[in-house]
Design goal:
Layout (H helix, E strand, L loop, with lengths): L1 H41 L10 E6 L8 E2 L1 H7 L3 E7 L5 E10 L9 E5 L2 E4 L5 E3 L3 E11 L2 E12 L13 E9 L2
Parallel strand pairs: 2-9
Antiparallel strand pairs: 1-3, 3-9, 4-8, 4-10, 5-6, 5-9, 7-8
């Protein structure tokens, strides 16, 4: 009889131990998830990391460049439409950039650009550079709760010589932005 009571106590102790371990694991897991969620909510990004404005590029440059007159370029070259969009009520300042890779074989000094049908020599636009690229500022403005479109055309100036034949240009568009308070 005593052996039977000891065996029953041992079984009850093991069942209680199993229940305790399961409860501990369950509570640990749920507390860990709660802690992770609190950490995620507690992270507030710096105002410079907040981005409310985006850039979309429609009908990118896709043709063989050859020297042409400005009037012909305005009539024949297809527009690349750059759309700057901000759907929030937070004002952001931005600069729209044309990025020309230094791996391009075509010299950017022989290019003209039309921004909303205003013609410029590309090398007259404000410019910065780093080890890999040249950056030309196409527009600087601010935007809040709206979108702005820019029509861009790029072509070779009519005075460009034959030395630029069969050359390639590697370019892209970028948007640099900052939040206004």
């Amino acid at each position: 009889m005593k052996v039977k009571q000891n065996l029953n106590r041992l079984i009850i102790a093991k069942v209680v131990e199993i229940i305790f371990v399961c409860a501990f694991l369950f509570l640990s897991f749920s507390l860990r998830e709660t802690f992770i969620n609190i950490q995620t909510l507690a992270f507030v990004p710096d105002k410079d990391e907040l981005n409310y404005t985006s850039l979309s590029v429609n009908n990118p440059l896709n043709y063989v460049m050859y020297p042409m007159k400005d009037s012909d370029a305005l009539a024949k070259v297809s527009d690349t439409t750059l759309t700057v969009n901000n759907e929030s009520l937070t004002k952001e300042n931005y600069s729209l950039l044309l990025v020309v890779s230094k791996n391009s074989s075509l010299d950017y000094n022989c290019l003209n650009i039309a921004i909303d049908n205003q013609i410029y020599a590309l090398n007259t636009l404000p410019q910065k550079e780093d080890n890999n690229s040249f950056y030309f500022v196409l527009a600087s403005d601010s935007i809040v709760g709206s979108q702005k479109e820019y029509k861009i055309k790029i072509w070779m100036d009519e005075s460009t010589g034959n030395e630029m034949q069969n050359k390639k240009i590697i370019l892209s568009y970028d948007l640099v932005k900052s939040v206004s308070i």
